[in-house]
Design brief:
The chain is of the alpha/beta class. It contains 12 helices and 20 strands. It is 28% helix and 23% strand. The chain has a 9-stranded mixed sheet with strand order 6-5-7-8-4-9-10-11-12, with helices on both faces. A 6-stranded mixed sheet has the order 15-16-14-13-17-20, sandwiched between helices. The protein binds adenosine-5'-triphosphate (ATP) and magnesium ion.
Amino acid sequence: MARATTHYVCSGCGHESAKWHGRCPGCEEWSTLVEEARPTPVPAAGGGARIAARGKALTPVPLAQVEAPRVARLRTGIGELDRVLGGGLVPGSLVLLGGSPGIGKSTIVTSALGNLAASGRKALYVSGEESAAQVRLRAERLGEAALQVPIVAETDLEAVVATIEAERPDVCVVDSVQVLHAAALTGGPGSVGQVREVAGRLMRVAKERGVAIVLVGHVTKEGALAGPRVLEHLVDCVLSFEGERERTYRTLRALKNRFGSTNEAGVFEMRDEGLVEVEDASARFVAEATRGAAGSVILCAMEGSRPLLVEVQALVASTELVPPRRMANGIDRNRLALVLAVLTRHTGISIAGADVFVSLAGGVRIDEPGADLAVALAVASAATGTALGNGRQPLAAFGELSLTGELRHAAHPDRRLAEAAKFGLTQVLHPGAVLPDLRTALASALDRSVGQSRAA
Ligand SMILES: Nc1ncnc2c1ncn2[C@@H]1O[C@H](COP(=O)(O)OP(=O)(O)OP(=O)(O)O)[C@@H](O)[C@H]1O
Ligand SMILES: [Mg+2]
């Protein structure tokens, strides 16, 4: 009888089995068996000792003698994307681009391929999710360059690999990795075994042929990349497209990058003509910021190596609900809980019996502790009904809060201050401005404010 080409391996203990079991016979965990292609057996040389080495011994070479030709990066022509990638796509690399449905993954990759094709690079778009006609409709929105991108609509992995081998593009986009299907495995597209096999095959093609491959990936309801964790280990770069679909601003971040920093972030805006880079996001956010209203503070944040000014808005409203609501938009919910606890404990501002809503303007998400002070001041301002700032210009702040109510240093204070100065914000509260703790910072903010207190 022919030997089966696949077998089932437990992702927990590594137990191998010819048949699928709901519960692993090895470690007795449920649903851990994953279908894998069976490795081709290598015959033992000479039939000598059982543990005789089967391969040819290699000669290790000092790293200094390894030849590493400097390859030029492939610039996508989208400045923010190139920056997040660390200067452009590296030939032969595998990039995973994840993001929630409708965020604009297909849009950004189509624009990037269009620009690359226009600059004389060979591009290929493999669409598994949408028909070629659907992709064309999107490309019409994006302009003439995008319409020149060669496309195949295919979900069979073998056909896709054969096409890449035959076409030898410089850059290939696979939209998405979850819909490609390896016929050798019985699991449905998107299953753990399938995604692992698809990514593994594409990685080999990418490395052997020097093709930069961008895999578009789905995210789960919780926001993590769908599929096995090994997918993130396998690829060279993991990009995440974040933001809320109904808001215009979206941020692109690198979660992992073997060829560059993971601190960079790009800001985009979805428009009729596609995703447009927002090069000077601070200017927008400061111009749109509310003036003279309680509950608004400008946060001097860092998006990687770039400073960003963004408005923090807070609303404190009394409620009958027990426990009251704590809603955070654009900042971590647990971080908000911590800031509220420090605020009530160390400044005496009471928010018990009140719902607290905190939101960053424009759908931006900031994940750095340097946001604490601005959030605390915005909530205090909303709770006391006092507008901060001098009426003409809003108050800006940054700094981390410790559990004891002290202000802690935040990274790159000089860059944050320079950005604030650039947009005419002279009132900036930060740990470096002789502010030891939150109580002093709040007193200082309230002192400078000209707003009317509406508190009872
Ligand atoms: N004419 C338009 N003007 C502005 N925005 C548009 C227009 N048409 C589509 N969009 C936006 O583009 C988004 C869809 O983008 P895209 O198809 O690139 O997302 P995606 O991340 O690939 O989604 P999926 O996960 O479904 O593949 C829509 O959610 C919508 O916000
Ligand atoms: Mg898409």
